[in-house]
């Protein structure tokens, strides 16, 4: 049966151009196959077929303008897709509404059936904080205990919730309690026991502690400037060891591996363990923080410096927390898209309590809960200290964090007290012990651990007669031995076990420890603990005795490492534990398959002129991505990432085409459901729509850009953002991306100081390329025309994803619409585009005076227009160069210059700039939509030719593009006037021409520099 296929609802657009026919008469197509691409001046979308069948005739051609309801094609529908199946969207909406009303009515009915008598007006009020009826209280508490015993915690929790709900309905003012008492979340009887050999584990832990401290001390004995930390790992050793011995599964050929974000300055502990494992030798430990010679151990986790060891850079505080959250989310994304198997892998992040002050540390915890990231476990090491002193001297960091995480919806486990406290807490019948625990602030807790047992007896237990009595039979030594939860392997094991079994929410383990644990008077719980990198002989002897390290006094004085024989029970145990867990951690490996870059002609259409049609490079990019989505190798690997700006960039067509990732799918009908580009969230969605969250979007990008190593699957992340809210906003993450050897595209859209016209000072970007240039493995481009963009982008795909170079691309695109020429015929053009510059045009009519004009990005077109005026009105010849990347030109120049200086006797190399300009005629004038320093970068490589820069130094401001370019002196008129002035200065023409031009174009030579305005 023949059917008509019409243009669907395309939102507010009318008369939209058909730019591509994707089918022809006779083609057999399926539902949802794209049939034509249409394009407004802002975005392009593909129209999918709503029937399967054979195409009879096509009613439109490229260039036609279509609106909703226009006939696109006739199709003979297949038998298996009877036409009655397609219910028009409007009708479908009506049916859905009717169903909703019915459902609503039903609900109301049920409610009315159970409607209780009118609400009582009595309001429960707490009159007195004191218990007015202890017997009644006892009854309730006993009932609760009985429920816990008979039906378990879940049931008890349910009943309490119901009671609270009921009280709320009755009008009680329910106080929100963000905190539980200052005791462990897991009661002793609920602790899962560790199957490990505690004696061996303790011995191993002691050796790791010793060797970690020794490597820092030895390094600083040799070179006191090297620095390092002992106190951090000393406080966290148990937290790491329990994970290493029992929980963290390594990547191998059967399993993807858990991902662990180690706290940055606990790195010595990881090296010390790797030493016992036989992965590092003494010589390597002795090159801790001496990384210049190969084989040195990096100060902190840096994959760039130790690419086979470290996986995640974490030492810039706060980044680890965010990156881990988005990593866990990205892992679910890959699973939900069917790209990796769900193997129950976990992401663990170790964080310092001081580090939790960073806005980034807590900034994304809401997302983790919202997305039900039960593959995520945070361990916050609360040693109550940061660098300068206590984290919350007057408060309690553990309680504060508990409140924040509980409020955000996390599963919170507090590990505060070690096992020695269990019997005391069990005997605390009056509740006074818990009362003091709640009342004591961190400053006091810290001070106590810097003193001794007697001090604790008097100042802690001594607060109430009941608690003083509680410890009367304990010696001061016993009191001193009362340990903190984070140092107790039993408590830590139980917490980890509970965490990995938790379903539906992320877990945070908040563990209390002592900074500099075991370091004695030199570093234990003292304010200067963080900085301690040297231990004198007495301290070392104390440390040895404290952890029973089998070294003689002489060996201690020499700060020798200790490694048991490889056949010793300790080493055998250590290795066996790791073998059971699949291998060693941390370890960075890559087994991903490269992605074949699309054929060279994939963007052929972009090498042709757009003719009359005007478009921005942002739009050209979106067109290109739409094309890429048809490449079967590339399409599934693309990860478009947008922080709430899809419509700004004309990317709304992606919503329907590939869907927005949402772990719960779409539980609602979108407001615009009848439209072609309606908002579509789905579980297997491909777009990461991050909301207004550049740091989160960048974290997602990093997760995807390192997918090749963390998940062994090469992906192509493309993060599009307002260029001003890119490097400037998330610079530290971009630096970490470089360290992580990220591969992918960053697109600074709506770029340029004068090109994003109306948005003003905070939006107009005149320096993102400069920041990009500071990252050694970031390759950046500022293209003007669509063929430049296509060539750059394809090369990026080839270099990063096919050849697996560890680089990432930053490309700026603009929102100014103009027509694009065809690629010049010159055979070196493509190579020039990639190297950073090529000659785009030459005016050589008069053969008298010549100037070299270099233009980049938005300002190249001003250069071209200026050159035309110079030729026509002043008879000046010129060569115009399109500079696609001043940054790349400079890098090439630096390298060549260095080579030449270091090889004075060899054939001297020539930089690309010199190749282009070295022998050219006339002075050089360069301009971009960025600060002058952007084009100044190539000044040294022009073979000492005169070089002048124009640029947009100064704050941006709102105005038209024309006025802005005039203001910043980069418009064609300024180019002409400055060009003439440059020629006059070089004594190639009389200065009167320059003067005349300045007058003619109303250029106020007394106007201050734009930087001062
Ligand atoms: C963004 C950032 N700011 C400052 C530092 C310097 N710094 C290194 S460690 C540290 C204190 C860390 O305290 P905490 O997080 O409690 O870790 P702890 O050593 O106590 O486990 C500081 C401020 C840093 N590494 N990163
Ligand atoms: Mg701390």
Short description:
By secondary structure, the chain is of the alpha/beta class.
Helices and strands in order:
Elements: E1 2-6, E2 16-21, E3 28-29, E4 34-39, E5 44-48, E6 53-58, E7 65-66, E8 71-77, H1 89-114, H2 134-169, H3 198-222, H4 231-247, E9 259-261, H5 267-276, H6 282-285, H7 319-336, E10 347-352, H8 359-363, H9 365-370, E11 376-382, H10 397-408, E12 411-415, H11 422-426, H12 432-439, H13 442-449, H14 453-459, H15 465-470, H16 476-481, H17 489-501, E13 507-512, H18 537-546, H19 553-557, H20 569-580, E14 614-615, H21 617-628, E15 638-642, H22 653-658, E16 660-661, E17 681-682, E18 688-689, H23 694-705, H24 707-710, E19 716-722, H25 727-739, E20 745-749, H26 768-773, E21 778-781, H27 786-802, E22 808-812, E23 818-819, H28 829-835, E24 837-843, E25 849-855, H29 860-874, E26 876-883, H30 886-902, H31 912-917, E27 924-927, H32 932-936, E28 947-950, H33 961-967, H34 972-985, H35 991-1000
Parallel strand pairs: 9-10, 10-11, 11-13, 12-13, 15-18, 15-19, 16-17, 19-20, 20-22, 21-22, 25-26, 25-27, 27-28
Antiparallel strand pairs: 1-8, 2-4, 2-7, 3-6, 4-5, 6-8, 14-23, 24-26
The structure holds thiamine diphosphate and magnesium ion (MG).
Thiamine diphosphate (TPP) binds at residues 232, 235, 265, 315-317, 352-355, 381, 383, 385-387, 515, 530.
